[in-house]
């Protein structure tokens, strides 16, 4: 039962009651030092112990049996942890995985993938997402701590995945003033990625100083991506698939389903069991107004218990106000549904604002590009 508070009704309106995605931080360490990275502790090795994973598994076991929860191993770089350590964490979910209630995924820079990891990924049926920004010249931000390019190491890791027949998707961080959509998407397709996600470069975490994409270059990028996609219907581009789903539902008169779709509370469980909600980028951030964004710790409470009082957290309540404002004022809300909490905070310093550069370049310009390319 949600705690009674002015924001309780707004929480129930906008946020799903249970997570379908839980993000786990097996280690804070990353072996790379990408210039746009938002992770504050990526140089330190602090590892999640098995007790935390067991507590999360127990929380998921409390959910209704027909919920399927994706447990996404993020990081740091998740494969920077020891293989045996990861086995210990994954074992905690085995009963749920075999019952079809948990699927594992991991988001990796691919540089540490070897045959040994591939065998483990296959054994635990883990969905793999690769972080790579396109061909070599678009990856010059992805360097190690000695400043060396990581591209060749990533390609070697991907080659191992292919040798083991492991399917993978790719997420590219894109600066649309430098990267043409066709170049990124051609590269992903030739690599063998089953789906591609495009993240326009964002201001978040400790990555606060870099120039942001402009609306002009973003619209050109999306127009290019739409044209490419029409010629390559077999490759799924996550952002285009989202808008296509929206349009399909509207055309079928199923607007209610889209509108009833609520935000995942998106619990991110850090190495020490702390839980941060709404945006993984808030983990490890401290702020004079909001404190540390921690909603609870899985050692002391289940995720369900943490979510039951989440509406009382200042940043959550503010985000709900922001969604209400977006809903009342923005012509893109129908499709957008309010974008991400973290972008509001890192760009505007608050959660109850509306527009961000992120939503302009990732949502609004996508819609405008589609309108421009659609014949009357
Ligand atoms: S486009 Fe921006 S302002 Fe409009 S609904 Fe989305 S987040 Fe809110």
From TrEMBL:
Cross-referenced SMART domains: Elp3 (SM00729)
Signal peptide: none
InterPro entries named in the record: Aldolase_TIM, Elp3/MiaA/NifB-like_rSAM, rSAM, rSAM_sf, Sulphatase_maturase_rSAM
Domain Radical SAM core: 14-251
Pfam families documented for this protein: Radical_SAM
Sorted UniProt keywords: Iron, Iron-sulfur, Metal-binding, S-adenosyl-L-methionine
PROSITE patterns assigned: RADICAL_SAM
Domain of life: Bacteria
GO molecular function: iron-sulfur cluster binding; metal ion binding; oxidoreductase activity
PANTHER family: ANAEROBIC SULFATASE-MATURATING ENZYME HOMOLOG ASLB-RELATED, RADICAL SAM DOMAIN PROTEIN
NCBIfam families on file: rSAM_phane_AMC
Name recorded for this polypeptide: Radical SAM protein
């Amino acid at each position: 039962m949600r705690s009674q508070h002015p924001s309780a009704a707004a929480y129930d309106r906008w946020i799903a009651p249970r997570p379908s995605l839980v993000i786990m931080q097996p280690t804070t360490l990353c072996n790379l030092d990408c210039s746009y990275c938002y992770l504050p502790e990526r140089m330190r090795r602090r590892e999640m112990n098995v007790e935390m994973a067991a507590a999360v598994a127990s929380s998921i076991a409390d959910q209704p049996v027909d919920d399927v929860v994706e447990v996404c191993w993020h990081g740091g770089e998740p494969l920077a942890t020891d293989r045996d350590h990861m086995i210990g964490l994954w074992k905690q979910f085995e009963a749920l995985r075999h019952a079809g209630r948990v699927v594992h995924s991991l988001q990796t820079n691919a540089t540490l993938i070897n045959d040994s990891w591939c065998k483990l990924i296959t054994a635990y049926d883990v969905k793999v997402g690769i972080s790579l920004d396109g061909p070599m010249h678009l990856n010059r931000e992805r360097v190690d701590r000695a400043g060396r390019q990581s591209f060749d190491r990533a390609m070697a890791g991907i080659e191992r995945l292919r040798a083991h027949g492991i399917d993978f998707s790719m997420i590219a961080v894109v600066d649309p003033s430098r990267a043409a959509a066709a170049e990124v998407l051609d590269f992903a397709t030739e690599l063998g990625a089953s789906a591609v996600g495009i993240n326009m470069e964002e201001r978040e975490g400790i990555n606060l100083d870099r120039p942001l994409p402009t609306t002009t270059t973003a619209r050109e990028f999306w127009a290019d991506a739409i044209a490419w996609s029409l010629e390559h219907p077999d490759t799924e581009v996550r952002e285009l698939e989202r808008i296509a789903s929206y349009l399909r539902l509207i055309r079928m008169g199923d607007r209610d389903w889209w509108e009833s779709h609520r935000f995942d509370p998106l619990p991110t469980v850090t190495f020490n069991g702390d839980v941060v909600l709404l945006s993984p980028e808030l983990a490890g951030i401290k702020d004079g107004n909001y404190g540390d964004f921690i909603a609870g710790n899985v050692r002391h409470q289940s995720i369900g218990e943490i979510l039951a009082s989440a509406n009382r957290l200042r940043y959550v309540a503010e985000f709900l106000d922001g969604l209400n404002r977006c809903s009342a004022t923005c012509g893109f809300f129908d499709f957008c549904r309010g974008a991400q909490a973290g972008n509001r905070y890192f760009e505007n310093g608050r959660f109850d604002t509306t527009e961000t550069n992120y939503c302009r370049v990732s949502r609004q310009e996508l819609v405008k590009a589609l309108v421009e390319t659609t014949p009357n």
